[in-house]
Fold this sequence. Notes:
By secondary structure, the chain is mainly α. The protein is built from eleven helices and no strands. The protein has helices at residues 2-21, 26-37, 41-65, 71-93, 101-117, 124-128, 132-153, 157-167, 173-199, 204-227, 230-254. Helix 4 (71-93) packs parallel to helix 7 (132-153). It is globular.
Amino acid sequence: MITLLVCFFAGMGAGLGTGFAGMSAAAVISPMLITFLGMPAYHAVGIALASDVLASAISAYTYGKNKNLDIRNGIVMMISVLLFTMVGSWVASKVPNTTMGSASVFMTFILGIKFIVKPVLTTKEAMAATDPKKRFIQAAVSGTVVGFICGFIGAGGGMMMLLLLTSVLGYELKTAVGTSVFIMTFTALTGALSHFAIGGMPDIPCLVLCVVFTLMWARIAALFANKASPITLNRATGVVLTVLGAAIMVVNLVK
Length: 255
């Protein structure tokens, strides 16, 4: 029963974060499985990444169906992220062990407040006015930054992508989230397969429950997000990120 409850709330938090803000499920699911079920960290991260795959895919499909997805620049950014995640991992292996997972959690909290206080109200018309070549270069550079930092510290990809897509590339919020979850689908798949290949399969019932609950809540959040007005979506996204960031910080303190 405790496994069902932990997986339900972990999946709910991860799904809402993914559907509303393109947030990685690893930021929510991993600490909850480690803290409340005593699961080894490596297996917990593998389950979180696997949960990310379908949740991000269904969210990307929903955003794409509503024309809130930039596939061209999303692919450019995705390739850069995947390549420089490996570079960041290699560099991290050469320096003294350090963890900055708490930094990504704090960033989630701060970004949530930012969306509430200073919403992203860029329009699709304003996006279209940007030079395609400039945006192509911005996507490649942003992907390089996100990939390297993710590989080096092992966390924070979804939030950094959302921040760069809205602040640097000038995307309106729905397109930013849609493009972010599109990229996360492939980065999470790569990460999950790597974890399972290296560390073996984790607890199967827990894996299935987390995948199902995350998928369900991501679908609900994505449907709501694509129908909401920009200001409503900013506030909803801000509340979800702020609450999740605060909750994860509390969970980390319990560990």
